[in-house]
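Running co-folding for S-adenosylmethionine.
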Amino acid sequence: MKIGYDENKLQQLEIFYDLLNKENMKYNLTAITDYEDVLIKHYADSLALLKFIDIKPEDSILDIGTGAGFPGIPLKIFLPSNPITLIEATEKKVNFIGNICDELAIDDICLCQCRAEDIAHDDEFRETFDFVLSRAVGNLSVLAEYSLAFVKVGGHFIAYKGEGAEEEADFSKNAINLMGGKLENIVHFNLSGSDNKRSFIIIKKVKSTPSKYPRSNATIKKHQL
Ligand code: SAM
């Protein structure tokens, strides 16, 4: 699918870049700061999802471990009517995203400073999202445990990954299955203007996640599924 854009969306991405660049000097929000790199490795990568996945305007989206707002903020710019929630553990990053939303006049994003494995047990969040996304947060086995509890049965968890996605999916089969997920597809793509190989691991939620998952961070670290 072609990704549609207009002057306003491009301007919003420019404002985002300016603030990211300025704040990054103080707080080290992201290692990717060069303008061209931000366009390709942050913006094009975040938005590549829209080429492969049909997201309807009412679909709810959760981005776990959004960091400085990737992929959640570029997606919100391109999907303004979708309800989007961003979860991030670090206060300075959450504050940064709050400023970005003010600058971009985005007033309908839900922004939570918390750890995913903690609020996954909260009824307000558990099994309530059509799409749960995560980029550069952990290995797939850990991510499946963090993420699948948030997905509605029939919805999807999609992990942004690089090379080696098949091996990672194979290694994480047990965790995916225990969380009520089923590997649906792995999509490979190249980021525009680079030979950077990327992939989406697409997992469908086929049954409810048992209430004991996700476990605490300490237990997940000690014993990966
Ligand atoms: N997704 C962003 C990106 O692709 O640029 C940020 C990636 S950064 C490497 C990982 C982020 O995930 C960090 O900002 C970290 O604080 C956050 N994070 C890691 N584990 C988390 C958890 N369990 N719950 C919430 N945030 C988490």
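Result summary
The chain has ten helices and seven strands.
The pocket of S-adenosylmethionine is lined by residues 30, 65-67, 70, 87-90, 93, 115-117, 135-137, 146 (CB under 6 Å).
Job closed.
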